[in-house]
Design goal:
By secondary structure, the chain is mainly alpha-helical. Helix 2 packs across helix 4 and helix 5 (about 95-115) crosses helix 9 (about 175-185). The chain has 14 helices and three strands. About 30% of the residues are buried. The longest helix is centred in the middle third of the chain and has 25 residues, at about 95-115. The radius of gyration is 19 Å and the shape is globular. A three-stranded antiparallel beta sheet has the order 1-3-2. The chain has two domains: about 20-90, Arc Repressor Mutant, subunit A (Orthogonal Bundle); about 95-235, Up-down Bundle (Four Helix Bundle (Hemerythrin (Met), subunit A)), CATH 1.20.120. Keywords: DNA-binding, Transcription, Transcription regulation. One of its GO terms (molecular function) is DNA-binding transcription factor activity. This is DNA-binding GntR family transcriptional regulator.
Length: about 250
Amino acid sequence: MVVSSLSEALVKASDELSGPSPQGSAAGRVYTGLRARIISLDLLPDTVLSRADIGKEHGVSQSPVREAIQKLEQEGLVVSYPQSKTLVTKINVDHARETQFLRLSVELEVAKTLAERRDPELLLSSSRLLRMQKMAGEDRDISEFTTLDRLFHMSLFQAAGVSSLWHLIAGRSGHIDRLRRLNLPDPGKISAVLDAHERILAAITVGDLARVEACMREHLSGTLASIPMIMASHPQYFGEAELSAQA
């Protein structure tokens, strides 16, 4: 387990980047909880979601559960069959590719903007999160490592003054995030992520735009390049059509 001080620092970092945690609507809380379980693979593809059980678990009526399910459907993370059942979807590789195309386009500009400013103060949060991520990596704590990875990239958007763009992309990232979660335990992946983050920060710090682009492009393309291997190792997460196309 990662030491408690890291867990406490993680909560603090998340609060600083995301702002104060509002109570939010009941539907929002249900949505956030279910989405996190789907992304973390706690809820596997084809898992049946009982709306009654979800309501009991969260202490809410069926109305907010229905709203949460509808939002997850819009993201393609669940599918509902009228008068039947709601299932967690399998990973949609095409959706993952589209989202990653969008993210790469935007995050390249974010990193270049920071490199042009060459203000070390803007990278303090990112550097601190990277140190925490190294600790999580040493402990092989995949859950905290994943959270810190998200916060690291979010911190770059915040430093560039475009936090809203991060949230826009994150809301579309359910399928690529599940691919990353499958890829992360593979040998050498954690070290590769940490090395990429170090190189990105180093390139931004010295204002090397060409190196910033090269490092960011390589980093954000890693999971997509591993899709054939991921699908071969975890076929149960993908649909028959995608598996046949990959064969």
